[in-house]
Design goal:
By secondary structure, the protein is α+β, with helices and mostly antiparallel strands. It has a single domain, classed as 2-Layer Sandwich (Alpha-Beta Plaits), CATH 3.30.70.1060. 22% of the residues lie in helices and 25% in strands. It has a two-stranded antiparallel sheet with strand order 1-4. Strands 2-3 form a two-stranded antiparallel ribbon. The termini are far apart. InterPro entries: Dimeric_a/b-barrel (IPR011008), YCII (IPR005545). Belongs to the YciI family.
Length: 92
Amino acid sequence: MKAYGDFTQKVRDEGKLVAGDALQGVETATTVSVRNGKTETIDGPFAETKEQLGGYYLLDCKDLDEAIEYAAMIPTADYGRIEVRPIVVWDN
């Protein structure tokens, strides 16, 4: 956890951190869908997979290369995988 704290402080200090939080385990998930106007809920995650999203960082990076540099600093990158995605910018 110290490594995550150190990374979080680094991106905060560098002005890159927009948001981020750890997520509770998949056993706490509720999946919601609407079918024929009726809201349905299912206890558990959307997909049954071995991999789990443990949290997220939303960083303000200038481009994909910079985002990859920061993603490589996240402690999980040493033994798992980090997914990098741009946010959608809606033009009004």
